[in-house]
């Protein structure tokens, strides 16, 4: 019984760490993956490098083309999109 009583604080610390750190991080990662999957042509995005542009083409599963300025198109890995500033309406 004494051995179990010594592990109770350790178990409580792990439970607190899980609910305060690990679980919110997993939720945030899941939201980011959903956002990246939903990218469409015309969406205005901000990359992790700080570049702001408009999605001009959705290529493979892991790559998009972003137009930074008129005539300046760069290839970007989807997972490096940090934020979607404005979404376009889906085509009907």
Automatic annotation (TrEMBL):
Cell compartments where the protein resides: Cell membrane
Keyword Membrane set for record: yes
GO biological process: protein transport
Entry keyword set: Cell membrane, Membrane, Protein transport, Translocation, Transmembrane, Transmembrane helix, Transport
An example Gene Ontology CC term for this record: plasma membrane
Keyword Zinc applies: no
Membrane topology: Single-pass membrane protein
Record field: transmembrane: 6-22
Family, per entry: Belongs to the YajC family.
Protein purpose: The SecYEG-SecDF-YajC-YidC holo-translocon (HTL) protein secretase/insertase is a supercomplex required for protein secretion, insertion of proteins into membranes, and assembly of membrane protein complexes. While the SecYEG complex is essential for assembly of a number of proteins and complexes, the SecDF-YajC-YidC subcomplex facilitates these functions.
Complex formation: Part of the SecDF-YidC-YajC translocase complex. The SecDF-YidC-YajC translocase forms a supercomplex with SecYEG, called the holo-translocon (HTL).
PANTHER family (UniProt xref): SEC TRANSLOCON ACCESSORY COMPLEX SUBUNIT YAJC (PTHR33909:SF1)
Protein name listed in UniProt: Sec translocon accessory complex subunit YajC
Lineage: Bacteria, Pseudomonadati, Pseudomonadota, Alphaproteobacteria, Rhodobacterales
């Amino acid at each position: 019984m004494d051995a179990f009583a010594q592990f109770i604080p350790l178990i409580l610390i792990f439970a607190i760490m899980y609910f305060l750190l690990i679980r919110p991080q997993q939720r945030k990662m899941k939201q980011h993956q959903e956002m990246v999957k939903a990218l469409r042509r015309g969406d205005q995005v901000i990359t992790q490098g700080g570049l702001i542009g408009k999605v001009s083409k959705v290529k493979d599963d892991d790559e998009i083309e972003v137009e930074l300025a008129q005539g300046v198109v760069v290839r970007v890995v989807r997972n490096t999109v940090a934020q979607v500033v404005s979404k376009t309406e889906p085509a009907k």
